[in-house]
UniProtKB/TrEMBL annotation, chain A:
UniProt GO molecular function: ATP binding; ATP hydrolysis activity; transmembrane transporter activity
Record has Membrane as a keyword: no
SMART domains: AAA (SM00382)
Segments forming domain ABC transporter: 3-232
Keyword Nucleotide-binding carried by entry: yes
Protein name, as recorded: ABC transporter ATP-binding protein
Family: Belongs to the ABC transporter superfamily.
Keywords associated with the record: ATP-binding, Nucleotide-binding, Transport
InterPro entries reported for this sequence: AAA+_ATPase, ABC_transporter-like_ATP-bd, ABC_transporter-like_CS, MacB-like_ATP-bd, P-loop_NTPase
TrEMBL record, chain B:
Domain ABC3 transporter permease C-terminal residues, every copy: 254-372, 623-724
GO cellular component terms, semicolon-separated: plasma membrane
Membrane topology: Multi-pass membrane protein
Organism expressing this protein natively: Sedimentibacter hydroxybenzoicus DSM 7310
Keyword Cell membrane belongs to the record: yes
InterPro entries noted in UniProt: ABC3_permease_C, Membrane_comp_ABC_pdt
Domain of life: Bacteria
Keyword terms, alphabetized: Cell membrane, Membrane, Transmembrane, Transmembrane helix
Cellular compartment(s): Cell membrane
Pfam families reported for this sequence: FtsX
Name of the featured protein: FtsX-like permease family protein
């Protein structure tokens, strides 16, 4: 297993206001697979992903990623872990507004020992002609593709996508999803994706359904549907 | 209004920034009131002392007494009083000038002790007495006779107690003035006889009246020496240079700082309103009027300058008296107390409020003029890219550099604030050093380089013949350009084989002294060069003289024309061997009543180092304040940058940037602007210094060159960089504290 998280617990607050966000969650994902976490708003999806990505800490439980126990890392080790292994994609793109497209991609290339070439990345995401634009001058879908480019430029082992299509319309969403699928195929990048759109589950190897901090169902797909064919 | 509760919250949240702005305003108002107040009070003390104690307009010495003083006074409408004086050497390096008591002109002000009541008593000029430990009651040995100090005084004609009226620096350990009874001096003999004159008619120019007086005296056959009017007498004119200097700095510096504060407050206003545009839109929609909201947002832009200005003025008030008294360590004027200038105080408090209030009002009004819909839709400016960002091509740079530069360009007003702020702070810092350097240069070039002798003896009357061994003769006469009598200068005749004077051309090559050479400062003021002819008026006889200039010398020693002594004598209609003084390497034994002055170059050097001591602390104070201003400015900008880039900082952290890397990216960019601002500060400083010097130089008829010393530039640069590092340290924690959740919060941009 590439990712295997066991008995994850996380709560915020204390006493009466204590909010148990994750209750004994187990999930795992094989190397090179796409995993989807499905669940309604507030169910703890982002919290779970943040812990796997090493930006938040567990209360208890273990998270093994590529044979390392991320849950046991200190701050420096977590930084190193995110730097080397993890790419992030967010619902609202989170591009740096005063950097151009290529500069936004450089943000991550800059801390990688062997980043992919900028032109190569731009052609993968189809933005060669827009590399000197500022984010504000791009459509939502284009911005998300810049975010994808930024996440994969350092060729991470793990790509974490928190509702990557949450702010996009249907057509654009499908473009972005097929881009992710292409990356998964070409680079063998393991992808963990959050969504509350059940249809997206069809392009994943495994789907975890989360409700109120508990895994309610695990679906393993034998047949992976190409993203272009997903409908909703 | 409920809204006003938010003000306290905003104050708390922006505590560091608001404190910085308040400090800047505080500093500006303080400077305005203290510097303006010192200048004004010193001016007032000088004027009232000159009036109340009847400062002389003219003084001169003669060989024989003038018999018809009463008649002259009546006819020409003036007061004239005779005095006798003699210089006694108390030690190798200390001269005390004794003067007989006056009743009509230059009346001493008794600061401490008692007036003279009998023979064997002396009144001492305050600064000399203090420097040498004489108190009323102590005794002083003069020419073998013991005198008792009965009182300490200020003298209207020795406010800046220079030994010779053309010196620059006072030295209290080398020279002092005392008043003793006439009989005490007459007993020992060897004294000078002189007269002081004060004109009754203050409407006619002193020059015109002086010419009439001089004509009349010369017609009577009076042999006049050492004729000097009080505008050319540095003992009375130098203090006015301080007054002017203080007053000319007291307005521009504070105004520049107030304007800087306007920019930064403007930036912050805009930021706050943009960040709150949704709330504002909602308030509008609920029926709040724009006036009410404008008033709400105006509270802070008025409160900050009010606090800063008020506290600056309040702290300035108790500092004014010590400030004036510090000036009185150089100038001997009776201290009769401080007068407040209501205008300065009002300006110190109101000017920042008005400037900041008005500028904020327009910014706020403009921001609030959007429709409620526009406002509620949120921040349309946040991600806007400005023209500068769009135009600049940064492709060649490494990412880190690119990012840092982009961050600086994010807001043009912020960029200008930082640039101008650093320019001003650097200029201020270098100003202190440059003043020191220029003065140092003036002092040292008046002793080193040009002259190679130890003593200069000036006679009261022309002498004839040759110089004693180890000495050279020189002659000198005062001239001025027509219509500019204040710009007096000497034409000095030197031996054509002189070994005591060395002049170099503008390129540093030695010049033969067997020709007519003009010094560079004088050449510049007269606007002449080699080959030109200078036409000037002789001070003594009012006739026009022409001098054909052979060469210009690069020396900064002062305003002179040097020429062979024989040629000058012929021009002046004197025998070839006439001379007015000796330059000598050894002490000469010349009776005191023949001399109008004796200058020891060693004393001049001592005076320079004595002067530079207190000067140094002033420079350190200036540099330190410049550093603090710079620190506040960089801190303000950096903290704004951090706040504006919170999300980006958070992203950097998520992506795995290390603490140090994030700090360097976020805090490192300002250094470019700091360096550029510093570099631009150099010409700014040179220009403003040139302006001030030009003005002051005219006032005291002296050339003050602006000399920028690379060493000092480097020191100031290091100080600015250090300041920058300190501000970085102050802000590093702010960067560290930005949480990763800042970017993870799933709210729309
Ligand atoms: N930093 C936090 N402090 C307190 N509560 C939090 C924090 N982050 C998340 N929560 C709470 O945890 C729960 C799950 O949040 P989240 O993981 O963001 O859900 P999802 O991504 O599934 O919408 C929510 O109730 C949310 O309020
Ligand atoms: Mg979420």
């Amino acid at each position: 297993m590439f990712i295997s998280a066991e008995s994850l617990c996380k709560s915020y607050g204390s006493g009466d206001g204590k909010n148990d966000v994750l209750k004994n969650v187990d999930i795992s994902l094989e190397k090179g697979h796409i995993g989807v976490i499905l669940g309604p708003s507030g169910s703890g999806k982002s919290t779970l992903m943040n812990m796997i990505g090493g930006v938040d800490r567990v209360d208890s439980g273990s998270i093994i990623v590529d044979n390392d126990n991320v849950a046991g890392f200190d701050d420096d080790a977590l930084t190193e872990y995110r730097r080397k292994n993890v790419g992030f994609i967010f619902q609202f793109y989170n591009l740096v507004p005063n950097l151009t497209v290529s500069e936004n991609i450089e943000v991550c290339a800059n801390i990688s020992d062997s980043p992919l070439r900028l032109n190569e990345i731009l052609s993968i995401v189809g933005l060669e002609d827009k590399k000197n634009r500022f984010p504000r001058e791009l459509s939502g879908g284009e911005q998300q593709r810049v975010a994808v480019a930024r996440a994969i430029v350092k060729n991470p082992k793990l790509l974490l996508c928190d509702e990557p299509t949450g702010a996009l319309d249907f057509e654009t969403s499908r473009d972005v999803l097929s881009l992710l699928q292409k990356i998964n195929r070409e680079f063998g990048t393991t992808i963990l994706m959050i969504t509350h759109n059940i249809a997206i589950g069809d392009m994943a190897h495994v789907v975890y359904k989360l409700r109120s901090g508990e895994i309610t169902e695990v679906i393993r797909n034998d047949e992976i549907i190409p993203a272009e064919r997903i409908e909703w | 209004m409920v809204l006003n509760k938010r003000i306290f919250r905003m104050m708390r949240e922006n505590f560091g920034r608001y404190t910085g702005i308040i400090l800047l305003i505080f500093f500006a108002s303080f400077t305005l009131v203290v510097m303006g107040g010192i200048g004004q009070n010193l001016g007032r003390l000088l004027t009232s002392f000159a009036e109340n104690n009847r400062q002389e307009d003219i003084s001169f010495t003669t060989d024989y007494p003038i018999s018809d003083i009463g008649e002259i006074e009546r006819e020409l409408g003036l007061s004239m009083e005779d005095f006798i004086s003699m210089d006694v050497e108390l030690s190798q390096s200390q001269t005390l000038r004794l003067i007989s008591p006056n009743q009509k002109i230059n009346i001493p002000a008794l600061n401490e002790g008692q007036d003279l009541s009998s023979s064997g008593q002396i009144l001492l000029e305050n600064l000399y007495a203090e420097a040498n430990g004489y108190l009323p009651g102590s005794t002083i040995e003069i020419n073998g006779k013991t005198f008792t100090v009965t009182g300490l005084i200020s003298l209207p004609n020795y406010i800046y107690p220079l030994k010779n009226p053309f010196d620059i620096l006072v030295s209290y350990s080398n020279f002092g003035v005392g008043i003793v009874g006439r009989e005490d001096m007459e007993a020992s003999g060897g004294y000078l006889r002189g007269y002081t004159v004060r004109f009754d008619d203050s409407n006619t120019s002193i020059n015109q009246q002086a010419v009439i007086l001089r004509e009349r005296l010369e017609n009577e056959g009076v042999n006049i020496s050492d004729w000097i009017d009080n505008r050319n007498n540095k003992r009375m004119s130098v203090p006015w240079a301080s007054v002017t200097g203080m007053q000319s700095m007291s307005i521009p510096i504070p105004i520049a700082m107030f304007l800087l504060c306007c920019i930064i407050v403007g930036i912050m206003n805009r930021r706050i309103i943009r960040a709150e545009s949704v709330i504002i839109g909602t308030f509008y929609a609920q029926g709040y009027r724009r006036r009410e909201l404008v008033r709400h947002y105006m509270v802070i832009p008025v409160l900050l300058p009010a606090i800063g200005g008020l506290s600056g003025v309040l702290l300035a008030l108790p500092c004014l008296s010590p400030g004036v008294n510090a000036m009185l360590m150089y100038y001997n004027v009776p201290f009769t107390g401080i007068e407040w200038n209501v205008l300065h105080i009002a300006l110190g408090v109101l000017l920042p409020i008005i400037l900041m209030g008005v500028s904020s009002y327009f910014i706020i009004r403009r921001q609030l003029s959007q429709t409620p819909m526009e406002l509620m839709k949120g921040d349309k400016h946040k991600t806007k890219v400005n023209a500068l960002e769009r135009v600049v091509n940064l492709e060649k740079f490494k990412f880190n550099t690119k990012y840092k530069l982009r961050e600086q360009m994010r807001s043009i007003s912020r960029l200008l604030f930082l640039l101008f702020g650093i320019m001003g702070a650097s200029a201020l810092m270098m100003l202190g050093f440059t003043i020191q350097n220029s003065l140092n240069h003036v002092f040292s070039s008046s002793t080193e380089g040009t002259y190679d002798f130890a003593y200069e003896y000036s006679f009261r009357q022309w002498h004839y013949g040759t110089a004693p061994e180890d000495a050279e003769v020189f002659s000198a006469e005062k001239f001025y350009p027509e219509g500019n009598e204040i710009m007096e200068f000497y034409v000095t005749g030197v031996q054509s084989d002189s070994e005591m004077i060395f002049l170099e051309d503008l390129n540093g090559n030695p010049l033969s002294v067997n020709q007519t050479i003009i010094t560079r400062p004088l050449a510049e003021r007269l606007k002449v060069g080699a080959g030109d002819t200078v036409s000037v008026i002789g001070k003594r006889d009012g006739k026009t003289y022409d001098f054909m200039i052979d060469a210009v010398s690069g020396t900064q020693a002062g305003q002179f024309i040097f020429m062979p002594i024989a040629e000058l004598n012929i021009k002046l209609g004197l025998p070839k061997d006439a001379h007015i003084g000796y330059w000598s390497n050894i002490r000469l034994d010349i009776p005191g009543d023949q001399l109008s002055g004796m200058k020891s170059l060693e004393d001049v050097e001592n005076a320079a180092s004595e002067f530079m001591g207190p000067m140094l602390s002033a420079i350190i104070a200036m540099t330190a304040s410049a550093c603090i201003i710079g620190l506040i400015i960089i801190f303000l900008v950096t903290s704004l940058i951090i706040e504006e880039s919170k999300k980006t900082i958070s992203l950097f952290k998520i992506f795995g940037y290390k603490k140090k890397e994030v700090r360097s990216l976020v805090l490192g960019g300002t250094v470019y602007i700091v360096v550029v601002g510093f570099l631009l500060g150099i010409p700014l400083m040179a220009l403003s210094m040139g302006g001030i010097y030009g003005y002051l130089g005219e006032q005291i008829n002296m050339v003050l060159p602006v000399i920028v010393n690379p060493l000092y530039i480097i020191i100031c640069f290091a100080a600015i960089l250090l300041t920058y590092e300190v501000s970085k340290m102050m802000c590093a924690r702010k960067v560290d504290r930005v949480a990763m959740s800042e970017a993870l919060k799933s709210n729309a941009e």
